[in-house]
Amino acid sequence: MNEDFIHYLWKYKKFEWTQLQTTAKEKVALHHVGVHNTEHSGPDFFNAQLTIGTQKWAGTVELHLKASDWYAHHHETDPAYDNVILHVVWEEDVVVFRKDNTPLPTLQLETYVSKSLLTTYQELFKHSSNTWLYCEKDIGTISNFMIQHWKERVYVERLAQKGKEIEALLIAESNDWEAVLFQLLAKNFGLNVNQDAFLSMANAIDFGVVRKCSANTIQLEALFFGQAGLITGKEEAGYAKTLWKEYLFLKHKFNLDAQGVLPFQFFRLRPPNFPTIRLSQLVQVYATHQQLFAKVITVDSLEACYALFSVETTAFWKTHYTFDKTSSSRTKKLTASFIDLIVINTIIPLQFMHAKMNGMPKAESMFAFIRQVPRERNSTIQRYEKHGVSVTSALDTQALLQLKKQYCEQKRCLECAIGNQILQRNKG
């Protein structure tokens, strides 16, 4: 058992709460459990209301597995705990005293919790080497309506988490949304292997320079490849020499500095995902669209995104994947699946934060947008499906990835609507 279970019991009154007594045999009438404190230090519940004996109290409630945890956590020396009106524990192993040496009223929950609820809790958290989800035996029996509602909430949590990165970038870029879009797109174009390298390259370029070079594809490609360290001046290809010459000019003109740019990886990548190809495609995005942010922030359909990002590499890369080796000619356009990732990881998070920071929440329209995006395919999603969870769109897959990482792996079952539903089947 962990302390989260005690919090769950108290928050949802999952115990026989109509006939309560303190361990000193005083009657307790519970009027309001209080507000769960999940963000700040201090007691676990604020603004609780209850009557002990004949005295009505309003104040804070602290919860522990054992009463002795009060001293183990040094609450006796912390003024934040001076206003605790009730100590709720599973087991009173010691008597806790206030600073004036009077006993702190204590409620021992073990006395009031049904054995069947305790058994359900223990079954939920039973773990073996083959356990992937604690609720894997039950999740398939939860109504799809409830799970879908929970997935929407978890997806919004995921957007908010991504929004923190956007907020940090906005601060660094003096609220230049266009510059932040460039950094997010660059990171996205790097995929998992090169996302940090691509972002470091974008961070090493003042977006004002990108604006000035966007009308000249050669200059823009020289800027990106030069700052990425993918041209050195030693290449044999004539196009590489052209880019190098242009980069030296830009480096001098704009006082460019590539220190801090991470090395780009080619190993174990399929050639279409080589950083040379992805960088050239990113060049074409900015060579094609002026004021890209204005277009991205208003786009609301997947088809419109496919049209917006329908770009291919510059001519040289049709017959190359690297500078030093020629390949058969092939048009290298951004694929629909790649654009799907741009929508998932850049466009919708950016729209979410822009709406939030401008006081224009648009959850329903974002749900409609992300549901247009095909589901992602990976082992995590496949295992959820194996256990009976429906997956139809990128909203589902993004929510389930968040659920697995932020709830399942953290054992936050009691904060999860699915875990709560399983436990609430037992009325205690």
Structure description:
With 428 residues, this protein is of the alpha+beta class. It has 2 domains: 111 residues, no CATH class; 198 residues, no CATH class. Strands 1, 2, 3, 4, 5, 6 and 7 form a 7-stranded mixed beta sheet that branches. A two-stranded antiparallel ribbon has the order 8-9. Helix 5 packs antiparallel against helix 6, helix 5 runs antiparallel to helix 13 and helix 8 packs across helix 9. The two termini are 17 Å apart. The mean pLDDT is 94.
Keywords:
alpha+beta; 2 domains; 9 strands; 11% strand; 17 helices; 428 residues
State the gist of this model.
The protein is 47% helix and 11% strand. With 428 residues, the protein is of the alpha+beta class.
Strand content: 5-15%
Derived from helix and strand composition plus strand pairing, the structural class reads alpha+beta
Order of helices and strands: HEEEEEHEEHHHHHHHHHHEEHHHHH
Give the overall shape, derived from the CA principal axes: elongated
Number of strands: 9
